[in-house]
Amino acid sequence: MRRVVADLIAFGRQYMRSRIGAFFAFAFPLILILLFGAIFSGQGSTQIPLYVQDLDGTLTSQSFVAALNNTKVIEYHQIPTNVDILTYIQENAINTALLVPAGFEAAILRNESVNVTLYGDPTLSTYGIAASAVSGAATAENFRIAMAFPVIRMDTHRVTQTQFKFIDFFLPGMIGFTVLTNALFAMTPTAAEYRTRKYFKFLATTTLTKGEWLLAKVLFYTIIMTASALIMFTVSALVWGGQAVLTPVTFAFIAAGCFEFTSLGMALGMYAKDVETASAVANAIGFPMMFLGGTFFQIEAMPPIIQGLATVMPLTYLNEGLRATMIFGNETRALLYLGITVALGLAFFLVPAKLLSWKSK
Amino acid sequence: MGAGDLQIEVRGLTKVYGDLRAVDGVDFEVRAGEIFSLLGPNGAGKTTTVEILEGLRDPSAGQARVLGVDVRDGYGKIRERVGVLPQDFEPFDRLRPPEAIAYWAALFNRRITKSEVAGLVETVGLTARAKSYSMHLSGGEKRRLGIALALVGKPDLVFLDEPTTGLDPGARRDLWGLIRQLKAAGKTVVLTTHYLEEAEQLADHVAIMNKGKFVARGTPDELIQRHGRGTRVVLAGAGERGLRALTARAIPARLEDGDVTVNVEAAAEVRTMLAKLAAIDVPLTEIYTRRDTLEDVFLRLVGARMREGVLAE
Questions:
Q1: Cβ–Cβ gap B51/A360 under 8 Å
Q2: How far is the C-alpha of B194 from the C-alpha of B208, rounded, in Å?
Q3: What is the predicted ipTM?
Q4: Are the Cβ atoms of A6 and B106 closer than 8 angstroms?
Q5: CATH 3.40.50.300 residue ranges in chain B?
């Protein structure tokens, strides 16, 4: 064990002194937690600006615009009636604008249909929100004019005990992401470097075994990833009021994830021609996994084919397992995913354990 | 193990890669406390030979015993007694020399105190550089650190694979001093090199290797005596005129780069020959005697000179 500890300390010193390692272990996830937390914290204005040109100017059209404003979803801005709406949109770089046509009230009084026109780019999310708001206001006005009321209504019910925020769903993904980036992205070039710079051969002249060397790396990443997760957890709780919990299974996931991705990194590093190739290989495998493994986006929201791909991503089970234990308290599911993570780790571990030879041919 | 005991015994050692016989049936032994040098050009098979002896490669045929055990299956018993400085050694970039030494000591299951580490740093002359990361050390300093790592396990046997390759002459001579200290401390050293002068200066026994085979083996003096041309008297700048003058007096001589050289078989005849030559009126800039070196022996045996490990035909 003394040899493992010595190797762990020596490796750790070099890793932390490289600064890049320390940045990706601690600073980078912290930046993401702060950044994403700020974006999705719900603080500040969440209303989207909607520019309205009311060419009718009647009580009915004003009532419709007022109903729209009452949705609290849009921030109302008026477009003068004496300008062309398309010219105004172009000159003022407006994303979404609504035209209430002249004759709006008269048409309603005649019991005729009348259209309001929404201008904008349908690919923007703000357009979709504005369209929903306008549609909602139109429905409300239609009911009012018809002197009717909606028969079917929607009620909501929370499935989680606690009122979780976006940051709570984001935190487990960030822990999984950090384990992936550190263990995989660092270990692949490290294994290639040890091979090309003949460190393996030099180590073979000592009493250190290859199993001890592998174990030291897994332990090192488990230690720093645990520290990194604790920092992320503390920041998300203190700064954003996050309420996800750290359970014992969380730490088991961190250890299993480090085992899994350190082993995968070593396996890939065994094959890479040099350090640069190893980094490219790690990126080529790690980046798709980062996005498809449910770090930033919900897997359920992805197209079916992508969801299928997500099921073969090792990171998926780490991220979803962490969410199961940290947010939903679903330990059964968490333990199932933990088992999958450990099994994949073992499979990856056997590759370098078998391939990595202290001896030359 | 006492001085003079066999520490390495090699019989018919062979390593084959496809059609290439990298090591082709070599025999030798190394005794305790001596410096044994494998001398030869790049690709001669030196590193392959020592890596077999270090337990890093398996031989294709033949026997190799190190510290009494077969290298194929017994290395686990002697690993702690063997120190190695590999060819092209590169230390770990972001470890300081004392950290690297303490780390390596642990890998040899050795508890080492701070003062022992400092002592070893001093032995290899790196005290002034103790706070620098290894990646900032010069080439010579890196090799010194490598030697410190090879010694940290307190080995009986030390392999130094081309320890001075690529170093400037000053750094090379500094390392020679360090290697002599190892011998003085009773260590057995196996030194591979392609520097003839290095082998001649340091080694008790030399094996000249070329194309996987030993071309010659013995002490430097034995090799020079056996394969050299004895002592020569050199009439520097004597030129064609000098050669004619000597030939006219039935003294066998050769013209080499404007100098006339006369071979003297026995050392006792040098004085007589010098007196004889001094009596002849020959224009010259200087007269001196020259004894063959390992370089001359190498040229004679291999048929080519060697520059930085490369044979110049």
A1: yes
A2: 10
A3: 0.81
A4: yes
A5: 6-225
